[in-house]
Write a structure and sequence with these properties.
With about 200 residues, the chain is mainly α. The chain contains 9 helices and no strands. It folds into 2 domains: about 120 residues; about 70 residues.
Length: about 200
């Protein structure tokens, strides 16, 4: 791997490491790393500097990491990115077998991220959200938004008592910080939890 390629991967991975700590700009760091990698492999493809198998393997790494990001951020379109990343990965495997050309370090990196992706998909969303947004959040004592969303993930897993406790944290912090609008919204969420009628986190 070239130095520039390693640097771009390092940037992206650094963003992922910063994610659980709620370091500002971590998503932007990840996106910058992935964008530079995409441009890098596109350049290699256009100039034929590397075999097509190398480009496809690298692109599969980029899109698998992008899919991981989408699932960590709970984006609604995450499944589409995952499907596309699976397609690119299958192409990379197909050409690697056909050309009998393998790049062990890059391929191992891809497999590592595929493993992370599979692990994420098998975890309950409330546990994943807790780890990513609450467990290491240095500002959690003032972060009522994270507590409120955590209550939603608990609710959809039918952890109603825990959802009410998380909601209580959100309402108390909002009240302390004098955010009247959010305080009212959190109270509405509490009523929906108690009545088992919380249909969507976002207002329609």
């Amino acid at each position: 791997m070239k130095i520039a390629e390693k640097l771009f991967y390092l940037i992206a991975v650094t963003g992922f490491v910063l994610k659980p700590f709620h370091i500002p700009g971590h998503t932007l760091i990840i996106l910058c790393g992935l964008l530079m990698l995409f441009i890098f492999y596109l350049y290699i493809l256009i100039t034929s500097a590397k075999p097509i198998t190398y480009v496809l393997t690298g692109m599969s790494a980029v899109f698998v990491m992008a899919s991981v990001l989408c699932h960590l951020k709970f984006f609604l379109f995450a499944s589409y990115i995952m499907d596309f990343s699976a397609f690119i990965l299958l192409l990379a495997v197909f050409y690697s077998i056909r050309k009998k050309t393998y790049f062990w370090f890059l391929s191992s990196f891809v497999l590592f991220w595929v493993g992370i992706h599979v692990f994420i998909l098998t975890q309950p969303r409330y546990k994943l959200y807790y780890f990513l947004n609450i467990r290491f959040n240095r500002h959690i004592e003032q972060d009522y938004l994270s507590w409120d969303k955590y209550s939603w993930f608990l609710y959809i897993e039918e952890k109603y008592d825990s959802a009410l406790n998380a909601n209580k944290q959100a309402t108390q912090i909002a009240k302390t910080l004098n955010d009247t609008a959010f305080y009212k919204q959190a109270l509405e969420h509490r009523k929906l939890i108690e009545k088992r009628k919380w249909q969507s986190f976002h207002k329609k």
